[in-house]
Amino acid sequence: MSVDRTKHAADFRELHGPGRLLVLPNAWDAASARVVEECGAQAIATSSAAVAWAHGWADGNQLPPRAMLAAVAEMARVVRVPLTSDIEGGYSDDPARVADLVAAVAGEGAVGVNIEDGAGSIDLLCAKIEAAKAGAARARVDVFVNARTDVYLRALVAPERALAETLERVARLRAAGCDGVFVPFLALDGVAAVVEACGPVPLNLLAAPGLPPAAHLRELGVRRLSAGSALASMALATVRRLASGFLGDGRSEPLAEGGVAYGEMNGLLASR
User: Going by DSSP bridges, is the β-strand pair 180-182/83-86 parallel, antiparallel, or unpaired?
Assistant: First the structure.
């Protein structure tokens, strides 16, 4: 399938526009991406954890980049909406290698990337953002660079310092040229301050228990909401439950309840 990446890149940016909230149920392979698209998703995002698990690796920059690129290519082949890829920390601390990776991701059909600081320094993430932009320019794709900071996710500072630290990092990320800011597990009482600090740059939150529904988040100024690895986790829990039951009693009926029918799944992929 031929993909107009220029149009996809422009469409993806528009989905983050003021007053909008882009909801992303993250996928991990071509089949899950196609199902998510069929559900009405306006764009497809990968989950780094889910992609890593699907390829037999632990999350946390362990996945070989070639496997991540193959997954992006497989998803891009079957979906007709914009695709953005989680590249973790860029799988390198060398900004030049991150630039090469972003160019390769764009070459496989993605028009966005997520890149994170993790336990690394904000200086390094800023350098990677600048490199990502250079790699995107080389690929001639207007890649949307969503910068994730893990102040809350990894408890990088004491709780009473978390918001102030996040605001400082947001300022640095914006100065480095990011297109979006992702703050997983940001405390709800800090959202307004982070939205203000982001200015025109969209704020992305991660779905979590206790988080208000999309309509409320939109009113607060949030412009992107990601499921992260949650869908993959739930799918694996279903596999474990059904496999345990089947191993226990060999009953066939539970295996036929509520699944996507063989013919339906084949039909979703056959025309792609």
Answer: unpaired
| 242 falls within a domain | no
Residue 155 buriedness (CB in 10 A; 0-12 / 13-18 / 19+): exposed
Residue 74 belongs to domain spanning: 5-229
**How many structural domains comprise the chain?**
1
CB atoms within 10 A of CB 237: 10
Q: What is the CATH classification number for the domain harbouring 193?
A: 3.20.20.60
Query: In the predicted model, is pLDDT for residue 225 greater than 50?
Result: yes
Residue 164 lies in a domain: yes
252: in domain: no
Give the distance from CA 112 to its chain's centroid.
9
125 vs 147: CA distance, rounded Å: 8
* 225 three-state secondary structure: strand
pLDDT at residue 257 is higher than 80: yes
Burial class, 256, CB count within 10 angstroms (exposed 0-12 / middle 13-18 / buried 19+): exposed
Residue 109: the pLDDT is 97
Query: Which residue is it, tokens 């829990």?
Result: 237
Element (H, E) at 171: helix 162-176
